[in-house]
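seq:
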Amino acid sequence: MSESDRACDTLQLQTMALYKDPKSPFWWMGYSVNGKRHRESTKEKTKAAAQQVFAKRLTEGKSPVKGNIGFLLDGLLKDYKINGKSLEWCKIVCNVHLRPFFGDKKITDLNKSLIADYIDSRRSKKISNSTINKELALLRSAYNLAEVDCPVKISKLQEAAPRQGFISDEQYKKLVSSAPEHIRPIIVFAYKTGCRRGELFKLKWEHLDLNGGIIRLYETKNGETRTIPLDQQLREMFRYMKRESDWIFTYRGKPIKSIRGAFTTAIKLAGLDGITFHDLRRTAIRNLSRAGVSDPVAMKISGHKTRSVYDRYNIVSEADLHEAMVKREKSSTNSEREVQGLLRGSLSDLLE
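struct:
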């Protein structure tokens, strides 16, 4: 916009009026830009606060944001593609969930009622608060990316405590033996390395260095290349796997994109109801800790960038706690054993 145009807009905006709409809790602005009338909420409930918004609009001297929310989602998808982020997940959320609900709404029409309706709609389909939060976070990101003020604060829903499920050695054996042959290597790799499901499906043979005993993950959740060391069992597994494609994990020569059905079948056959694929990742991280691997190194292997997220895995199980007390008991001092004897004597006297 040229300086003359900006000056013209500013002059026209000086006719802006503040008024209270009886149907809304907010103060509103009515004004004209280039001969076109506009009506916009200040999103403020007091006149004093509304006057500050009034002053800001007057100073900016610009037209209100145009377009619909679908336009913002398009921009977000483009950004994900350009920057190599998790595009597939973003496309599903934007095009399957957000766009049908918000896409045709004006950018300035987003409000708490609309957000609440979306939440109710997703909950009716048994979608967790955690997933809904992630979807709405993308909507918020679309506004931020376009440098457009979000008309309403999108508050996070309370999430359930993270799962604390682990897979025992015996359960792991049952799961692998019950699984279809084409997903057995996937289960073994996830159990050993803690690799995310979306990451391992993108692995190619060119990423594997058997002589060096490592595999490199180039397409990761946080966008950073990760190097994972391979133990002898994994090296042997990869050495004997058929190379039917550029991708490592395949079925009938084609890259595997999902194992939801096959994994569910394996769980049922093994009698392990309640086990999830993510439990393999959680168990791998716990096993690294048990083996004495330091937390920073374990985080490098698992791909956790922040300690707070890593700690959410709660890698201490009940068995670990019991084992700790057994070790503590074995290290009891002479004084502690003498106190134990005194305690037994006292209890015996009380029972007589």
